[in-house]
Amino acid sequence: MKTRFGLTAVVLALTGMHASAQTAATPPASLTAAPAPAAAPAPAKVVPALETAQACTPGCAAPAPVVKPKPVVKRVPAPVTPIREKVEVIEPKTDATSDRAINQSKDWLNAENRPTVGDDGRVMFTYGAGLPVVVCAPLRICVIELQPGERVNKEVHLGDSVRWIVTPAESGSGKSTQTLVVIKPKEVGLDTNLMIPTDKRNYYIRLISRSSDYVARVAFNYPEEAKAAWEAYAAKRAELAKSEVADMPAMSIERLKFDYSIEGDAPFKPIRVLDNGEKTYIQLPATAKADEIPVLVVLNSEGKEQLVNSRFINGWYEVDRLFDRAALILGVGSEQRKVVITNNARYKRSFWNFGGER
Fold first, then answer.
1. pLDDT 10s digits, 308-328
2. Residue of 329, 327, 354 lying closest to 342 (CA atoms)
3. Which residues contact 301 (CB under 8 A, 6 or more apart)?
4. Which end is more exposed in the chain, N or C (fewer Cβ atoms within 10 Å of the end residue's Cβ)?
């Protein structure tokens, strides 16, 4: 009876060991609930349960198999773009006066200042006709040439002084020294403005930067210079007109005699002849050139030419005496041109008195 009971217990023990070897044991709850390590450990060698069971002596419990932990994958959250709140800009209200001023400024800024071709590759803008636009490029220089003798007052002023470089330079010497404004952009796609104050005027210029296009040399035409030259010319002519009147001797109008006749056709034909009883005055036309002034001679009773004391002042011949007849002669031979002036009162009287010239 005891021997049968012992054999039955051995059979049951062997049967349990064989069942535990075929079915993996459930890992303890403490292993599954443990937090995952920060870094995956080196892979561990898993011993098969059957080998463990065979190594185990009868009556021992089978050890639990080692479970390989799952690798931990770190997920980086996507960057969150901050939501920018729209800021409402409140601009001050304008009235009719300010609106008119803004429109006038826009008209000047948008006015076409068409460039022209200058010497040595210069691009010429008309000063004051509108806002000049100068195109520059990185790694290139644009040069603005001021009028010779013009000087910059202290420094120039830039709308964007961070991404633009503006430096001065000079050429020539003495009174003919010319100031050069050298411009270099740092980036492409810039748009700003430049003001250059000088001892003669202020320059307002728009600057644009492109990748490759640029204007190498810029200069200006000055309409006020031409206007000033014409005003100076008019003033000089007015002074000459005054001097012409001043050069005429003081005389009473009652003594002036205009009874003269003029014969002949030439560009220098006089437009007026008169005398004051002592001297004779002959006015030539304004078309008479200074290098083609005719010679004045007096004609005697026989028609022969005689020299006479005279002088030409500001378009007038002043003769130191009265005459019956005189002539203005230019050229010789077949190309000679001649105009005869007759003092009608003296010539008729001398003819009837047979007295010749007096």
1. 999 988 888 999 999 999 999
2. 327
3. 324, 350, 356, 357
4. N
